[in-house]
Amino acid sequence: MATLSSKARRAAVASALTIGAITATAAPAFAEPVTVPGVGTFDIPGVPAQTIQIPALPQLPPLPNVQVPAPDQIKTVGQKAVEAAASKIGAPYVWGAAGPDAFDCSGLVQWAFKQAGLNLPRTSYDQAAAGTPVSAKDLQPGDVVSFYGGSHSGIYAGNGEIIHAATSGTPVKRAPLGSMPMDGARRY
Which end of the chain is more exposed for a tag (fewer CB within 10 A), N or C? Predict the structure, then answer.
């Protein structure tokens, strides 16, 4: 049987006293050994010789079966924004509209990110100035891409494509990234 340090023994006895497994009463000053199974034997003044039975802890109910998605199944805010924007492909372009049925360019970007849980600025110029700058070679799905000096914005969808509300008479669509002069990109 391994021996415990005096500090560990004191802690075990104090724990046993705390949970009520043993009690100490005032009695004449004599020391009788008290044995705690698996812990050791202790001399406690005023406590008659005994073996302490520590009650078993109650069984806890089993944890529910929780499905945790694999890291590659966890979607970023940007990926969620791409999915939201893609759901609006074919919606009409209306200048000044911010959804849910019609959009201008910055209105689509703002609406898509709001569906993903993030509030972005309303205008394409403000969208081009906020967030963190990203180079064209480092684009990831969900990055906001600015065109024509910041006067137009879209969402990078991956594979060299953006989703954007182009202009009056053209519905929300996918387009090649290189179909317009890119001004910059921002990550939110």
Answer: N
CA distance 115 to 98: 12
Q: Does the pLDDT value for residue 188 go beyond 80?
A: yes
Q: Is residue 67 domain-resident?
A: no
Tell me if residue 149 is catalytic: no
Collapsed DSSP state (helix, strand, coil) of residue 92: coil
Answer with the residue of higher pLDDT: 131 or 24.
Answer: 131
Residue 29, pLDDT > 60, answer: no
Domains identified in the chain, total number: 2
| Known catalytic membership, residue 108 | no
- 176 and 87 within one domain: yes
For residue range 127-148, what is the model confidence (pLDDT) as tens digits? 999 999 999 999 999 999 999 9
Q: Are residues 45 and 88 in the same domain?
A: no
- For 41-98, give the DSSP string: EEEEET--SEE--PPPPPPPPPPP-PPPPPGGGPPPHHHHHHHHHHTTTTPPB-TT-B
Catalytic residue (one of 105, 165, 172, 177): 105
Residue 63 lies in a domain: no
Task: Considering the candidates 36, 78, 121, 152, report the single residue annotated as catalytic.
Answer: 152
Residue 102 designated active-site: no
Task: Using the predicted structure, report yes or no on whether residue 10 has a pLDDT greater than 90.
Answer: no
Q: Is residue 167 part of a domain?
A: yes
